[in-house]
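R.M. (postdoc): so does anyone remember the format we settled on? I'll just put the C-alpha cells first.
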C-alpha cells in the first residue's frame, strides 16, 4: 500500500511531455513585458488589469501552423477583450459581486461554444472567467469602460503581431495538422457542445451563488475553482485537475506571502509578473499543480494592479 501511495504522489507531481511549451512561454512573456512596460512608462500601471487579458490570447493555438495559430489567437483575443469590457461594465453596477454572479454563467456558456467552434487549446472559458472576475472586482466608470476597450484591444493586436513573427522564427519540433473546425450551425446542433456549455453554466452559477449567499467575498475565485477542472476531459482527469488546483493554490499562497513580505516596488513587481507568466506557460499543460505555484502569486499581483485604479 505504501508503494502504491508513493506512486500516486509521484504521478500527482510528475511533469508531462514538453510539447514545445517554450513557444507560448516566450510569446506570453515578451507580450507581457511590452504591455506592462509600456503602461509603467506612461504612469498607468493600473490599466494592466485590462492589458494582461488581451495578452493572454498568446496561450491559445499551441503547436499549430502559422495561419490557424493566428486565427485561434485572434478569436481568443477578441473574446478576451470583450470579456474585459463586460467586466468594466459590471464594475459600474451598485452590487458588482451580484452582477458577476448573474452574468458570469451566461458568459461562460457563450464562450465555451465559441471555443468549441475554433477548437482553441486550452479548452473552455477559464481565462474569460478570470478576466471577467478580475475586472468586475474594481469600481468602474464610463471613462474606464472606454479605456478597457482600447487597452485590451491594443494589447491583443500587439500580441498577435508578435506571435506572427515568433511562430516563424522560433524553431518547433512538431507542428500539429490544421484542426477540422465545425461550422457555427454544426456547433449549435452538437449535443455534446451544449452539454459542455451547460456544465459551465451550471457549475459557475452554483459556485457563484453559494459563495455570494455565504458572504465569503471573492466570488470570482469560487467560480474559477469550480470551472478549472472542466478544461480536462473525463471524470478522472477533472478530479485530478481539481485536486491539483486546490493543492497547488494552497502552496502558491505561501509563495505569494513570501513575495509580499519583501514589499517589492512597481518595477520589481512587473518583472516578477513577466517571469511568472513565462514559467506558467512552460509547465501549465505539463502539471497543473506546479503551475498553480506561479499562477497564484501572479494572479494576486494582477488584482493588486487593478486596485491602483482607485
Amino acid at each position: 500500500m505504501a508503494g502504491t501511495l508513493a506512486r500516486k504522489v509521484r504521478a500527482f507531481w510528475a511533469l508531462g511531455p514538453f510539447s514545445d511549451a517554450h513557444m507560448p512561454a516566450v510569446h506570453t512573456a515578451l507580450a507581457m513585458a511590452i504591455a506592462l512596460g509600456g503602461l509603467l512608462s506612461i504612469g498607468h500601471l493600473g490599466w494592466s488589469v485590462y492589458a494582461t487579458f488581451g495578452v493572454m490570447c498568446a496561450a491559445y493555438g499551441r503547436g499549430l501552423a502559422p495561419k490557424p495559430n493566428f486565427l485561434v489567437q485572434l478569436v481568443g483575443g477578441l473574446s478576451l477583450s470583450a470579456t474585459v469590457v463586460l467586466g468594466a461594465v459590471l464594475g459600474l453596477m451598485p452590487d458588482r459581486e451580484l452582477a458577476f454572479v448573474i452574468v458570469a454563467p451566461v458568459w461562460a456558456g457563450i464562450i465555451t461554444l465559441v471555443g468549441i467552434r475554433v477548437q482553441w487549446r486550452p479548452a473552455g472559458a477559464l481565462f474569460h472567467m478570470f478576466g471577467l472576475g478580475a475586472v468586475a472586482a474594481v469600481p468602474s466608470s464610463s471613462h474606464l469602460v472606454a479605456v478597457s476597450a482600447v487597452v485590451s484591444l491594443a494589447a491583443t493586436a500587439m500580441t498577435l503581431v508578435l506571435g506572427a513573427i515568433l511562430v516563424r522564427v522560433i524553431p518547433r519540433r512538431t507542428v500539429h495538422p490544421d484542426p477540422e473546425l465545425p461550422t457555427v450551425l454544426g456547433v449549435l446542433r452538437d449535443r455534446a457542445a451544449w452539454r459542455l456549455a451547460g456544465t459551465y453554466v451550471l457549475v459557475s452559477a452554483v459556485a457563484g451563488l453559494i459563495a455570494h449567499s455565504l458572504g465569503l467575498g471573492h466570488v470570482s475565485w469560487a467560480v474559477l475553482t469550480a470551472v478549472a477542472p472542466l478544461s480536462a476531459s473525463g471524470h478522472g482527469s477533472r478530479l485530478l485537475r481539481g485536486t491539483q488546483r486546490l493543492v497547488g493554490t494552497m502552496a502558491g499562497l505561501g509563495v505569494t506571502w513570501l513575495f509580499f513580505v519583501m514589499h517589492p516596488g512597481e518595477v520589481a513587481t512587473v518583472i516578477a509578473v513577466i517571469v511568472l507568466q513565462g514559467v506558467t506557460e512552460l509547465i501549465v499543460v505539463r502539471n497543473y499543480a506546479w503551475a498553480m505555484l506561479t499562477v497564484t502569486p501572479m494572479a494576486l499581483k494582477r488584482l493588486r494592479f487593478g486596485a491602483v485604479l482607485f
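R.M.: ...and that's the designed sequence above, right after the C-alpha cells. Also worth knowing: Residues 19-307 form one domain. The chain has one domain: 19-307.
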